[in-house]
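Quick one: co-fold with 1,6-di-O-phosphono-beta-D-fructofuranose.
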Amino acid sequence: MSDNDQVQSLLDNPKIQEVIDSVNPELVERRRHTPRRCRVFEKPCCRLVESDEYRFHIHQEAAAQLPDIIHNKVQTLMPLEGEDGQIGALHEKQRTIGIVFSGGPAPGGHNVIAGLFDAAKAANPDNRVIGFLMGPDGIIENETIELTGQIVDKYRNVGGFGMIKTGRTKIDSREKMDLSRQTCRDLGLSALVVVGGDDSNTNAAFLAQEMLKDGIQVIGVPKTIDGDIQVRDADGRALCAMSFGFHTAARGFSSEISHLCTDCASDVKYWHICKVMGRVASHLALEVALQTHANITLIGEDLADYVDGRRLANATRENRVDYTAYGMTLRHLSRVICDAIVRRAAVGKNYGVLVVPEGVLEFINEIQVFIIKLNTIIAVYNREHDTDFHSKFLILEDKLDYLHRLARLSRGEEIFTVWNTRDDDLFSDIPDFFQEGLLMERDSHGNFPFSQVETEKVLLGLVRDYLNILKDRGRYKLGIQRRYYEKILKRAGLNPDYYGPMIFRNYDGHDHLLVKESIISIKTLRTALEDAGAIGPKDPIPREVENIYKKSVPSFKTQIHFYGYDGRGSNPTWFDRTYTYNLGLTVFSLIANGATGQMAAIRNLEKHFDAWEPIGIPIAPLMHIEDRKGRLALVIERSVVDLESPAFKVVKALREKWLAAHPGDDDYRIPAALYHECQTEEDRPLTLLINELGAGA
Ligand code: FBP
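Sure, here it is.
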């Protein structure tokens, strides 16, 4: 039989075909699974109960720009007991509902559609659900697909946004708004559902205001793995504890990172540097810390909160203000990391896991200043020249040239520019790849593309430099186990107690022996032995002593990993599957009851499933003003890690334990495996669980 025939017979083998079929039994089971419904959905219809108990700080600009939805209230879905002809008729009314995904994918998105589809079809089989393709562009360009049972069934409980795809376009101009309205009118939509993050829900509010006159309702759905849509009222009461997708992504990252913890503690030679997504907020990194107990986890919000006591005291003594005392600099941060690395090495652990949140640089003052200045420069350039900065200056050199010119201009007495010669000099000092990163094109919402900046490389560059300095100063050493040292010397007929005090700085009873700071080479080792009279100038250094010294010289070896896109594409966990399916059901009930400008949400996510309560949250009152692309814009306020939250406090309190800079085992935690249907404490984010358990403590 020829090779080709052999291959063909392999491919024709039905058993082999079954094994490699793209639809495996797990997928079949996954697609068949129907998530549990919140109690309120056990009845065919719900009514909305508006509540005055929640307060919001309303921004006057939001009131001015969104007058018809600014006074919306929190709405709770209640089961319709008995007959209510009016509400029943509203549910049964024939509707065409459009749905769009906006922004990065997040596990569970398909179940929002599935929930909406099931509820819509159950209310009236003639209801239609239209998916807009490729994100908001699909609305602007009227690119759609009518969703059928067959299409929806293929994606039930499956990750990603593959069913209708997604995109990041912002509907931010009169023209785009008019085109969107036209599409929705042409399709005869009763309602539009926007599944997105803070920016997309902001867009949803503007669309709701705009389309009110067309009688088209707009409902938002809180999506993003970043976990930065967490809604509380002005009194701090949680309305939406977490956006969907966060749990799955965090569990995926934690599982991978936990494997790296196991690997490095086995191989004992690498520091695994794990960048974890989250464009700004460090929620994902915090959850990973709780799930894995990685040795070091940076939390951006915590770094920004840092106050340098020494600088502050100096400034107070000298009666001046030192603004640099607030917030951590990149250099200082690298020192903190080095300190941890050196301490672990001293007890023989020249390995570990460092978790770096993708958006950490957002919280480093000096970088934030660059980002704001460059945002402004690019926005002003685009405005004044009516062109795009990035198309005009294609390569880094051209962009830098432009910045140099601006800096020179700032020397002129009359001219004010945000970029002066000091900025220019400081910017010139940073590596090319990082300059390029900072000059990267912003997304359509004006967000800085942190995912494309090699944050970890910037930080590692500084860490490496400083570790080398510490090595030269004899402070970065690998601790040698006393037992091992004694065994090696005795085996060669040498007296460990004779050489010990000559070589080590802590020979007096320590478990891990540290070579003296003055011994940083074979030459300095020789000097130490000669000075102590152990060898003469012509004598060789005893081989075992030399070997022990060599073993004490650490090399800082790293492996870099990025966890982000993999988490966005994961199949949703039980939590996200159930959460999103119920969000879809909630969306339909909000629409059936006439709501618009509301975000579907589930209250009490932090509690057991039986306590989950579907609600509608008014979007307009959540807005505040932010600088976007050098302009002030009305957007939903992002939620960042609360340093007063029980979850953060727990992580902070256990930092030292998890660093494990002591002899003995590390404190790594292996997260539970992801079961299809499980009921463990890991059914929901640990962050939520701890915040709930610690509330009021
Ligand atoms: P969303 O806010 O749209 O959900 O996206 C979040 C995110 O996953 C961030 O964590 C990350 O910085 C960004 O998307 C990456 O975006 P892109 O897909 O454009 O690379």
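If it helps, Residues 103-104, 106, 197, 224-226, 277-279, 358, 450-451, 564, 568 surround 1,6-di-O-phosphono-beta-D-fructofuranose (CB under 6 Å).
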